[in-house]
Amino acid sequence: MLTSSCTNMPITYFIADLHLSADRPDITSCLEKFLSDEATKADALYVLGDLFEAWLGDDDINEFTSRVTEAFKTLSDKGVPIFFIHGNRDFLVRKTFADRAGMTLLPEEHVIDLYGEPTLIMHGDQLCTRDIAYQKFRKKSRGWWWPRMVLMLPLTTRRNIAENGRKKSKQTQQNLSQDIMDVTPDEVTKSMKMHKVNRLIHGHTHRPDIHQIDIDGAQAERIVLGDWYTQGSVLSFTPDSYQLETRRFS
Amino acid sequence: MVTFKTNYGVIKLSLMVEEAPKTVENFLAYAKEGFYDNTIFHRVINGFMIQGGGFEAGMEQKPTKDPVANEANNGVKNALGTVAMARTNDPHSATCQFFINVADNDFLNFRNESEQGWGYCVFAKVVEGMDVVEKIKAVETGNNGFHQDVPVDDIVILSTTVDEA
């Protein structure tokens, strides 16, 4: 009796910043294990951005992207709803991929009812307002014309652009800003007040933590998800409690 | 010991030669040649840190030496009053810029050897002049081109004294 009530415990998972790529099969394996095992018992799975290290377009179908697509689709076919919010790496993900992977695309800021508590979810890059250069790029890359224009280019051209960009950014490291970036506290408060929530969950900064904050005298919290560079990072939420957990790469 | 005389007062740093030998050597090389003289604290965020050592007044960036390896895996924490090297996203890219923590910034500590987990290498501690640091952290700041949190009035390192005894 006890056992059965335990296995039926409602649970929702949040993940972000996996930065999956073809040359890091260890991360993909860890994700596959998570999706085929514990995630199958979830009420829902939320992917809050930067699932991929880079996304050149939904037409970039190869062994690696197919493997990831398949893993999500299998979970979705088992009846687990999967939601996706774009990150700053995979902002070119479109509905074609989402449909194939059995995911629902959400707007960049979205309020969900998490076991009774209105909870704001987002990738979190929009909170780093101190990074002016990035915010300019963000505005362009999330606008309506720039992504459309980029996605109209042939896939090989997009691949070359991405490759050159990587090389160029290595060469210009010296001139890059040495400013440590984190969320701007005022922006957090502003966002949470605007959406009328006392709980925020985001990724992006790779600084997993639970921050208790004060918003106009009310107790509020900001939960930051961890990345998947050296381990899997999962936020598991039940009606009674939640925790930031890690999963070892096998 | 390195002493910075600033237009806000004197700040004395004791260096962690044992914990961060390469970083200290790198910092001393800049300090001894007078590199830091006339540089400013160009990024000041109260409750976080004050950063300097790379720009002159007018946000003119100075040419640097080769970067130094990140020694943040020495386990020294980014605690209030410690000094750490600034860098780009590349963990091993620190050159001349440094920052003084004005809070316990745990999220800057070493976690693992990934790009995001390396953290920031602490190599010194303020032993005199925390009152000066407190004054600096509270100054008025504004935008300057692509830079935010730039003090409205320049905070300048006027001279540097190195005492290795």
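The CA atoms of residues 198 and 217 of chain A lie 11 Å apart.
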